[in-house]
Amino acid sequence: MPIYKAGQPAPQLGWKILVIYGDYASRKSSIATTAKNSLLIDFDEGSKRVHDILNKNKLVIKHGWTEVEALARNGDFDEFDTIIIDTAKVALDRFLMEAVLEDIPGLKDTNGVPKQDAYAVMYNRFQDNLLSRIRNKVIIFVAHGDYDSDNKKQMPVVSGKTGQFILGLADQVGFVQ
After folding, report:
1. What distance in Å separates the CA atoms of residue 38 and residue 79, rounded to the nearest whole number?
2. From CA 20, how far away is CA 28, in angstroms rounded?
3. How many helices (H) and strands (E) would you count in the chain?
4. CA dihedral for 46, 48, 54, 59, sign (positive or negative)
């Protein structure tokens, strides 16, 4: 392990993760696309509302989470400095969880609801098949906001364990109104 002397910056070894959340139509995605050399990965087909979208890099997901994993594995995200996942809830709770349950059907209960172990598999798959392949980038999760159970503060709408996972990874969380 090298020693970095005073004034000598340590190399950036990982990613920076940001969460932008807020009210519907508050321009969260438009703000995210102002990031340096960004790629908007559109999971809920909302990119058509992004300001100046014709001059932005975007990928509209049509075939599920495995499409994202294949692009990451092939290095298709390498040329971008910022990867925007829009929206976090749809990307993880729908697309990634669907892929996990399709690959391992035993991870859902008799009602089709993911079991506890499904979330662990989802987190590992997210880290192994996406985060580990897009090192040294800024990753922005876009999420809608809603009030907590006490109606006192806005929280990102990324449910339960998935939300805890995202917020646990985040270096910064910002609210847009």
Report:
1. 9
2. 6
3. 6, 7
4. positive
CB-based contacts of 113, cutoff 8 Å, min separation 6 = none
The three-class DSSP label of residue 146 is: strand
Give the separation between CA 27 and CA 21, rounded to whole angstroms. 10
Would you say the C-alpha torsion 154, 159, 160, 164 has a positive or negative sign? negative
Q: What is the pLDDT of residues 28-61, one digit of tens each?
A: 899 999 999 999 999 988 877 888 887 889 999 9
Dump pLDDT digits (tens) for 121-166. 998 999 889 988 888 899 999 998 877 777 777 777 776 677 787 8
Of the candidates 74, 68, 79, 161, which has an alpha carbon nearest to the alpha carbon of residue 121? Answer: 161
Please say whether the beta carbons of 132 and 124 come within 8 A. Answer: no
DSSP H/E element including 40: strand 38-42
Q: Which residues contact 23 (CB under 8 A, 6 or more apart)?
A: 144, 145, 176, 177
Claim: this prediction has a pTM higher than 0.90: no
Q: Which residues make beta-bridge pairs with 38?
A: 82
